[in-house]
Specification:
By secondary structure, the chain is mostly helical. The chain has a domain at 23-227. It has helices spanning 2-17, 27-49, 53-79, 87-100, 105-117, 132-136, 148-152, 158-161, 164-171, 173-192, 197-221, 223-226, 249-255, 272-282, 294-306, 311-334, and strands at 84-85, 286-287. Bound molecules: zinc ion.
């Protein structure tokens, strides 16, 4: 009897503390990704030894476009609203994201917002505290938690809901992906680049999707590759110093995710995707880019240290100021 009671107690404790236990492995997804990685690795090998140069350029073009759709699009524009984009650019982002083959932008944004909201806790779908393999691979193969609705109410998706392109992609995702993201790219290599169907399937099909899938997964697990490690000079749980200098940019991203200069896989403000966003700004395709200066952050820290203000309140104030500055810049630009 005592044993049963203890077992019940431990079950209660583990179920309340460990939401992720309510997730189960999606074995069809496991099989799909095993096949994708096997065919994809063969495709990458072929890419280096057997194909025409034009196929290599075409491959690079597709992977680069997909990466832009994922990082500048789904991550910086939609998940964090770091800038405002024109309708034409949003259409390009939706199409580029579709050919990446990583699910709809709506779902990507929802899980990424969950990740930020519950960062580093058991409710974080990509919890980095469980190690790189869990964060990068396993978390993407698990079903949604059984009590998803309970805490999904806290994730505000109204901004994304109102976007027509997002709605269209979500509604027709599989048709769009199979036609635009799979059949068409393979067919183009065969018809216009004179590539064989086998090479095209392995390289433009499998190897390309292998890369884009891992790029998408890496956005949520990058902290474990490039971020601060537990026990580093500035521990991951006490990141109040480094973000003055915007070093350790990944940890900075988790403090100020709305800063458009946060590059997913490079140094702050100098990565390829940030460069792409700068070009969009010059072309007038985006406006209201939100960022914080080192001085803003320094002032926020000073307020926390010298008044009753909490860190969250201080960062919210930095965000409000950034929004105001971004809006004023847009007005100046227009007149
Ligand atoms: Zn993010």
């Amino acid at each position: 009897m005592k044993e049963i009671k203890e077992e019940n107690n431990s079950n209660n404790i583990s179920s309340s503390n460990n939401e992720m236990k309510k997730r189960s492995m999606k074995w069809t997804a496991v099989l799909f990704y095993i096949y994708l990685h096997v065919f994809g690795v063969v495709g990458l090998y072929f890419l280096f030894i057997k194909v025409k140069w034009m196929t290599v350029f075409y491959f690079i073009f597709l992977v680069t476009s997909s990466s832009i759709g994922l990082t500048a699009g789904a991550h910086r524009l939609y998940a964090h609203q770091t800038f405002v984009a024109t309708s034409q650019l949003r259409l390009f982002i939706m199409l580029a994201h579709t050919i990446a083959g990583v699910g709809s932008i709506y779902n990507w944004v929802f899980w990424h917002r969950m990740h930020h909201k519950y960062y580093g806790t058991e409710k974080d779908p990509y919890n980095h505290k469980r190690g790189f393999f869990y964060s990068h691979v396993v978390s993407n193969l698990l079903s949604a938690p059984s009590d998803l609705k309970k805490y999904a109410r806290d994730i505000d998706m109204r901004d994304v809901d109102m976007d027509g392109y997002i709605w269209t992609q979500q509604k027709f995702y599989w048709i769009l992906f199979i036609v635009l993201g799979f059949l068409l790219p393979i067919h183009v290599a065969v018809v216009y680049l004179d590539e064989s169907y086998t090479n095209s399937f392995l390289i433009i099909g499998a190897a390309r999707l292998l890369l884009t899938t891992n790029i998408s997964w890496l956005v949520n697990s990058a902290l474990l590759v490039w971020g601060l490690k537990e026990g580093d000079k500035f521990p991951v749980d006490d990141n109040s110093v480094f973000f003055l200098s915007k070093s350790y940019w990944l940890n900075y991203h988790y403090m100020l995710p709305w800063d458009w200069k946060n590059d997913e896989f490079g140094a702050y403000e100098t990565g390829f995707i940030t460069f792409t966003i700068k070009i969009w700004r010059e072309l007038g395709l985006i406006n209201q880019l939100r960022t914080a200066t080192c001085n803003d952050v320094r002032e926020a820290l000073y307020k926390v240290a010298s008044s009753e203000m909490t860190m969250d309140e201080a960062l919210a104030e930095v965000k409000r100021n950034a929004e105001e500055t971004a809006y004023k810049e847009k007005l100046i630009y227009r007149h």
